[in-house]
Structure to design on (484 residues):
């Protein structure tokens, strides 16, 4: 299996461990992946607020590059906001007038967009392109005894969800079970993490993130598939604890980090040390703690 | 939400009858609203709003443009699409909120500096480098809002620097920005310049 990869801004910086663990896991599973050259920001939640056209032109620029480089390969996005924006541009391209306008803008970049490349969320690829028996066959260190709270966030499954339910997604369950982990289900698996509110309206943001963290807290860790969700749940637990009036401390990891852990990949690929809340208690549980 | 309800005399107030139409792609979608309140019930930040989503869409349909643009509602929207996928009338509500934010920024509605500054700072950094630079973005953001509030984030910022989660990069001022041409072309096509 061959894919193109659109990292997006976060997977290159704050969520580098998501990228390295993803690459390690896909390699183990025998998939080939190539980073899209010359990519730029998808516009995040900001492009569409600056203008309707900018909101689709920014992702379309990257899709046009992918069409040029792709040989029909699908484009993987691991960030749910990038995923949503890229799919939104493809949707817009179905309307001829809107596609023509996008292309009038892309002329200045010497690019043309046709709307033919298929964007897939990394979770979709991991849960649906590989047999669970294949995943099981690579497990060298089963995550037995580890309870994981899946957290999908919002834009992983909304508004587009060709691979899972909008409100009650389950894609992570079969992967986590194949790794040997136990799943802790809760009511907020697809509730929004609060996104920019943690910066612009901290009281609201911390309360929203707190609801998710509290619902997940019986588990040993939370598994995420989006850099924004990860940042909000991992980085603000001391502030959230103050708002909730009780201490919250739970490691928040990326799903490919857990897969890589079970596959026996090295810390240099998994980079658990980059997490803000230490993953040590959780790693000790599966006998993988170092130093 | 405020417990005091305000009485608005609809015959005396200035109403913009085209307002609701300007918020959705086709134009008549919001008119399908039956005020069921599913949007409010599904919204993770409704509890922090002065006007709930359901109330706001009613105000929009009544043409109360100015009142809608002065609510906190849109600035508490996290673009999670809960209301849009749950709306039994199939109204693209989350996308309508993006239009409201566009209008509020273009009309320079006062009182929401921390939100509008966020979008401006993000957009400026994206235009200049083609990618996000968290550190410069946060500096630009706090400089244009409230420098004091930055102290609340300083400890975390330092921890993130130590872990390599944010990269210290020198700002490149002057010269052409990576996406200047594309931003200019879009503005030109939309008749904004």
């Amino acid at each position: 299996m061959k894919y193109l990869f659109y990292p997006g801004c976060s997977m290159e910086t704050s969520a580098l461990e998501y990228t390295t663990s993803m690459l390690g896991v896909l390699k183990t599973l025998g998939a080939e992946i190539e980073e899209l050259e010359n990519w730029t920001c998808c516009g995040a939640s900001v492009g569409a607020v600056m203008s309707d056209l900018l909101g689709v032109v920014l992702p379309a620029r990257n899709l046009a590059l992918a069409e040029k480089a792709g040989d029909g390969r699908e484009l993987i996005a691991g960030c749910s906001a990038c995923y949503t924006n890229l799919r939104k541009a493809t949707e817009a391209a179905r309307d001829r007038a809107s596609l023509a306008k996008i292309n009038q803008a892309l002329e200045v970049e010497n690019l043309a967009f046709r709307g033919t490349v298929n964007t897939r969320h990394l979770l979709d690829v991991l849960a649906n392109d590989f047999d669970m028996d294949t995943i099981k066959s690579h497990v060298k260190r089963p995550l037995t005894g580890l309870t994981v709270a899946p957290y999908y966030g919002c834009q992983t499954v909304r508004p587009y969800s060709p691979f899972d339910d909008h409100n009650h997604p389950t894609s992570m369950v079969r992967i986590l079970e194949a790794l040997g982990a136990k799943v802790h289900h809760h009511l907020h698996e697809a509730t929004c993490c609060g996104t920019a509110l943690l910066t612009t309206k901290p009281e609201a943001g911390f309360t929203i993130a707190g609801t998710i963290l509290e619902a997940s807290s019986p588990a040993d860790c939370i598994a995420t598939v989006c850099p924004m969700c990860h940042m909000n749940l991992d980085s603000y637990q001391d502030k959230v604890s103050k708002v909730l009036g009780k201490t919250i401390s739970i490691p928040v990891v990326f799903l490919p980090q857990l897969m890589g852990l079970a596959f026996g990949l090295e810390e240099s690929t998994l980079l658990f040390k980059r997490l803000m809340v230490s993953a040590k208690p959780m790693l000790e549980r599966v006998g993988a703690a170092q130093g | 939400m405020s417990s005091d309800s305000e009485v608005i005399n609809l015959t005396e107030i200035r109403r913009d009858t085209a307002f609701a139409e300007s918020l959705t792609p086709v134009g008549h979608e919001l008119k399908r609203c039956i005020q069921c309140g599913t949007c409010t019930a599904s919204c993770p930040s409704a509890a922090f709003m002065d006007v709930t989503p359901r109330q706001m869409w009613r105000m929009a349909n009544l043409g109360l443009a100015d009142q809608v643009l002065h609510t906190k509602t849109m600035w508490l929207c996290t673009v999670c699409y809960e209301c849009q996928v749950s709306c039994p009338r199939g109204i693209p509500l989350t996308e309508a909120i993006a239009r409201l934010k566009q209008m509020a920024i273009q009309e320079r509605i006062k009182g929401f500096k921390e939100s509008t500054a966020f979008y401006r700072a993000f957009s400026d950094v994206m235009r200049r480098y083609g990618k996000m630079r968290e550190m410069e973005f946060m500096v630009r953001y706090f400089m244009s809002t409230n420098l004091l509030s930055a102290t609340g984030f300083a400890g975390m910022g330092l921890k993130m620097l130590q872990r390599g989660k944010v990269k210290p990069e020198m700002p490149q001022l002057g010269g052409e920005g990576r996406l200047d041409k594309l931003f200019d072309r879009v503005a030109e096509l939309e008749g904004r310049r």
Q: What stands out?
A: Chain A is about 50% helix and 10% strand. Strands of chain A lie at 2-6, 32-35, 74-77, 119-121, 147-150, 182-183, 221-224, 252-254.
